[in-house]
Structures are given as C-alpha cells and as structure tokens.
Amino acid sequence: MTGVRLLVPALISLMGAVTHAQEFIIGVEDLDYFPYYSSSNGQFLDSPSKQLLDRFARQNGYTFVYTPLPVARLTQAFIDAELDFKFPDSPDWAQEAKSGLEIHYSDPIFHYTDGVMVIPDRLHQGLDSFKALGTVRGFTPWSFASLISQGHVQMQETSSLESVVLQALYQRVDGAYFNIAVANWFLTHRLEQPDSLVFDITLPHASGHYTLSSIQHPEIISQFNDFLLNEARWIDELQPAPLYE
After folding, report:
1. Domain map of the chain by residue range?
2. Which H, E and C letters describe the chain, residue by residue?
3. What is the mean pLDDT of residues 122-149?
C-alpha cells in the first residue's frame, strides 16, 4: 500500500505538469477592434479571431489564456518573453523594437487595409492641406512615416478608436488613420453614424495580413500554419466582408 500511496501523488503531479505544458498565454490588443477582435474589461470577447484561435487550441489539446494589453505595452511584454504568443502581429510592425530577436510568424490569417478616414467634405483634397493625423497610441502609420519624420504631418495619438474617430468628426485632426473595416463597423454599429467618415483612397494607405507570432514556440507556429491550410474554407467565411473595406 505504501507504494500505491507514493505513486498516486506522483501521478497527480505528472498530470498537472502535462496540463500546465499545454497552457499558453496569448497577448492580444486591449481594443474594440471588431469585426476582427475585441477586448473589454480584461476579457478577449467572442469574435472571428477568438473563434479561430479557440478552434486551433481545441483541435490540438491546448488551452489559450488571453491577456489583453494596450498596444505599446503588448509589444514590450512580447519582447520581454512574458507571453507565449502575440496576436495580431506582422513582420512590418515595431521593427526597431524587435531588432535582433528571432520571431516566428504564422502564414497570413486575415487581410486588412489601413488608411485615412475623413469627413466627406475633405474627401480627395490630397496632402497639400493635410497637417494632422489621428491614430491610436502604439500604432505606427507606416504609409505616413516619411511625411511625419519630415514634419509635413503631425501625428496625434489617443487611447481608443472612439477618441480617434471623434477627433476626425470634430475636425481636430484632418483624418483618422485606422483599419478601414474596423472604422466603418464602429461608425455604423457603435456611433450609429454610417458614412460620417469615409475612406480616402487617394491618401497614403497600406494593406497586409494579420499573423500569430511567437519567440518561444516555432513548432506550434508550424502546427498553426497546417491548421490555416486545412481550415482555409472556414477561415474565408470568418474574414470580415468586403462591404467594410
């Protein structure tokens, strides 16, 4: 009986270790970024991104613990190895901060277009009179980088999408730089003011894809890529509709 008594705690300890090994922390942006993803009150809410990540976790026996953080703090926590994964991410983001790190990025997940939302009266007026650009703190409007560094455009950062949108609506800035699908969804469903800001395609903008990234777990990124390939049709259905772009 003594051997059994010794064996049971050992098995429980082993089971706990296995369970712990399957749990991973994913850092996510603490933003209302629907229709892609959304966080509120410390919770990562139901969204296409969460559905996709949860499905991958279930299929592979993992538990994902989501940690919403402000954009700038999220990047630093990822660099400091406080997180197993970061979502969303891109090789183009925070390149200077990530310099020297071996970061593994997944294949593309969701397509996005970032650009400038302006009041209709400012549409197609070009850059000559464009002096102030609103964006969320921690975001880098890469397509405006040279204009900002040369002093032609001033960047005004706020803590939320709502603040950025209101700045543009009240003409405190000449335009709001953001994900076009997210901005249109916010205007339609949160503020109930559709088309009060419109995407000015004649101003600098950028398109790309969100990815999942990791410094510590390249093997799971590879596994995730297989998942993306196998679930491609289902993921296409999750992609926010072109209506919002």
Report:
1. 2-110+210-244, 111-207
2. CHHHHHHHHHHHHHHHHHHHHCEEEEEEECCEECCCEEEECCEECCCHHHHHHHHHHHHHCCEEEEEEECHHHHHHHHHCCCCCEEEEECCCCCHHHHCCCCCEECCCCCEEEEEEEECHHHCCCCCCCCCEEEEECCCCCHHHHHHHHCCCCEEEEECCHHHHHHHHHCCCCCEEEEEHHHHHHHHHHHCCCCCCCEECCCCCCEEEECEEEECCCHHHHHHHHHHHHHCHHHHHHHCCCHHHC
3. 92
